[in-house]
Give the backbone structure.
Amino acid sequence: MRIVLLGPPGAGKGTQAELLAGRLGLIHISTGDILREHVEKGTELGLQAKKFMDSGKLVPDDLVVDIVAERLKEKGARGFVLDGFPRNLPQARALNKVLKELDLPLDIVLYLALETNEILRRLSARLFCPDCGANYNQISSPSEIPGRCDNCGQTLKKREDDQPETVHRRLKVYEAETAPLIDYYKTSSILKEVPASAELSEVLQEILRRLPHPARAREGDSRG
Ligand code: AMP
């Protein structure tokens, strides 16, 4: 199964991608996570990407497209969930080209739809662990001890790009650059919209209901 998750920041793409990848045995490719890892490690790519990320802008396409293409070539045949990529039309076209070369067409593009006021509410409550990268939300998925990571006890932090002024920029970037992908994928009839305001588990069920049949059958098997 080959899936793209689309949607505004805070719609739950990362969480749903992880759940789907786990259940269906797919690889999870999150460009945001990959870039943050590079920033943490201080690699050349991380240094280049950081200033764009901290200000809520998109990292230049050439930096991101190559990373994704490489992962798809290595492991794409297993099936994948793309989360945070593509983020604009040039990236969508580049993805198309790579997938054509690999003969791995997309099965479905899931658009997680969320109202702006709910996006703002969720992003203001988001925390992450700077040590192990675990994600939390003080409203929907809090840590057991407030402000501490459940896995490693580290003090949780707010992402630099979840600061209110940066969130504003990210939403503008989303509307201008990413939202047009909804129409782009609608024309190839693989786009399915999923209301993303419900609880995590409900949204996951809605997603599973929309997947093409073989994946749903596999999901049924794995639950025995
Ligand atoms: P995310 O975790 O997906 O919200 O991504 C965090 C930040 O990483 C974004 O605001 C961008 O600066 C950068 N980023 C992630 N994915 C992409 C992408 N596909 N293209 C360009 N920049 C990206």
In short: The chain is about 50% helix and 15% strand.
